[in-house]
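Field log, afternoon session.

UNIT: design team B
ACTIVITY: writing a sequence onto a fixed backbone
BACKBONE:
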């Protein structure tokens, strides 16, 4: 994916949504684990809420 098909979630570390989702699917189930795997949230921290939302969305989609 590229461009608008794969939005950047973390602007500081330039981490796209696809990379965060891959980390979540690989078992990184909290923002700190996703940060350690991808770097998302390691700069200003503004994206942490979005990362947590993606984790929650994935958890609820998995249960459905």
């Amino acid at each position: 994916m590229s461009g608008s098909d794969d939005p950047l979630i973390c602007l500081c570390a330039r981490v796209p949504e696809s990379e965060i989702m891959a980390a979540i699917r690989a078992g990184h189930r909290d923002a700190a684990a996703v940060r350690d795997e991808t770097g998302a949230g390691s700069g200003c921290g503004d994206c942490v809420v979005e990362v947590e939302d993606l984790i929650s969305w994935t958890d609820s989609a998995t249960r459905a």
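LOG NOTE: The first strand starts at residue 8 and ends at 10.
NEXT ACTIVITY: expression trials, pending approval
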